[in-house]
Amino acid sequence: MAESQAPAAPGRADGRREPNHGLRIFLIWIVLALIADLLIWFLWYPHLPPGRLSSSASSQQFDIAVLGLAAAPVMIFVWTYFGYTLVNWRHRDGDDEDGPPLFGHTGIQATWIGGTAVIVLAAFVFGTVELIVPAGAGAGEGPSPVWKPSGSNLLQVQVIGQQWQFTYRYPQFGGMETTQLVLPVNRPVAFHVTSLDVIHSFWAYQLGVKADANPGVDNVAYTTPKHTGGFTVRCSELCGIWHGAMFGSGRVTTAAVFETWATANQRLQQRNGLLAALPPYSLTYDPTLIPQLGKVLVKLGITGAPGFYYPPSDPVTP
Amino acid sequence: MSLPARIVTLLVAFAAVVAGAVFISIHYLGSSLAVVNFSPVASGGTVNVVLQEDPQNTVSSRPDWVSYFVQDPKTGAWVHTTLFQVPANTRVNMTILGYDGCTPLRNNFWSKVQGTVGNSMTVQQFKTVGQPLGPARRYSVLNSWSNCSVGHTFAIPSLHVFVPVASPNTALFNSSACGTSPCTSGPHSMVKFSFMTPKTTGTFRWQCFVPCGGGFLDGNGGPMQTLGFMMGNMEVSA
To answer: Domain segments of chain A: what residues?
Structure first.
């Protein structure tokens, strides 16, 4: 068993004393790392996606900036050590001697294990806190969300995916449905994301909200718009031939403008009969079970069968 | 096997492969849908476009697929395509003849007429061509769940145009539905609405929102995802 031994600190062949390479590398590294982190924080951070339109977007922007701050010194240390090695310890003419072996250097081992453990644990703690504090960070939390925003003024918005269009229902406004996604500023929003056919994914990019739309599943995601402005909505799950065309836009308005828009739509849909035609608001919908279909079936002389309707498993193409 | 027999066999096999490649190129890759151009017949800032949707497409290799057809404005002939061209910044007066029976909408929200002039449409029912069952009626919502009234939809999502296309009288359809495409007789509905084309040129996808691809998962395959059947493009030209 080889004994642990620190590498010798031999002098140079010309008799000059070997410089303190560790100190040199450290000084170069800390200066470069400081510069990089300052550039990341003051120049890069304000322009990082997805922006600061909502609480979850700001949170995600902050997360990316902090991870950048943490990663830059590590990356710069690797580059610094690599560059320093190339300059100082490269092979020279006539020098065929091996370098000193490094067996069981306790200090290096402890630094390596301790350093990586600190980085990984810090990332774990930071990531967990950043997932909990902003109420799920804009991600879909499933039908029973663990992390919810505080306050009672939560706006419920149901997102319904169908090949190839998202529609939105507002249960607090009579269950009115629209192709436009309008949200009030500074009011927490709960998105209830579901689908009527295949799997879609609701991605409101500048809001920092992304949640899968699964048929028969209520996937809940939270955010709070912080500024007025527009945002894009895309489907981010390959859902058929026109998946690429399944995008649109939404807007964050003042509370007064939102109330006016929502109540006007509700009244209009009450007047023209659309609200009565829509199914009662539900967290999910089974399109093969439509109570209102009774008259249709009677009229068609069809009993018990879904008629011209194609249920999800009839027939399943591989 | 003798040398001449080997050579003949080789040549025959080579010819068969070449013939197969040529057939595939012509039959599949070379086939392209016609684009019906309505721009030359536009006048006074308006253009009239006529479509029909059939329960089958007997002029294609998929006779059991539901399908749209476009009427050529110059000849009046029905063209098996879903590609048409209209001028920019123009009012399109659309007429759709609905020959297919009713199908409940997966999302009854599409019962609402949206994006048309006045957010409404007119519907008139016909026993057969030239024999109306009553006057045209105006609708802003055609509830497909309370009455078996909607066959398909015509939607241009990027222009926020969504229109339910009425189905024919159910009893008449069950007894004498059109069985040969393009339909020139049989019970049908006539849906009319107008919308404005954008000021900028471009290609605008249109589709049906009824999952009408029978035999496919959720009814969303086949004709629902194939140009020339239940989806197409509206080219907006200068």
So the answer is: 21-88+109-133, 155-277
Question: What mean pLDDT, rounded, does chain B reach?
Answer: 90
Q: Are B207 and B224 in contact (CB under 8 A)?
A: yes
Query: Strand B35-37 to strand B83-87: parallel, antiparallel, or no bridges (unpaired)?
Result: parallel
ipTM of the complex: 0.82
Which CATH architecture describes the domain A155-277?
Sandwich (2.60)
- One domain for residues B74 and B101: yes
Cβ–Cβ gap A277/B140 under 8 Å: no
* CB nearest B109 (choices: A177, A241, A248): A177
pLDDT digits over B45-55, tens only? 999 999 999 98
pTM: 0.82
Q: What string of DSSP letters covers A186-210?
A: TS-EEEEEEESSS-EEEEEGGGTEE
Three-state secondary-structure class, residue B26: helix
Q: What is the pLDDT of residue A5?
A: 45
Q: Beta-strand (E) ranges in A96-253? A: 155-162, 165-170, 176-178, 181-184, 189-195, 200-204, 209-213, 219-223, 229-235, 247-253
**Alpha-carbon torsion A115, A117, A120, A125, what sign?**
negative
Same domain, B115 and B134: yes
| Cβ–Cβ gap A296/B148 under 8 Å | yes
Q: Do B218 and A197 touch (CB under 8 A)?
A: yes
Cis peptide before B182 (omega within 30 of 0): yes
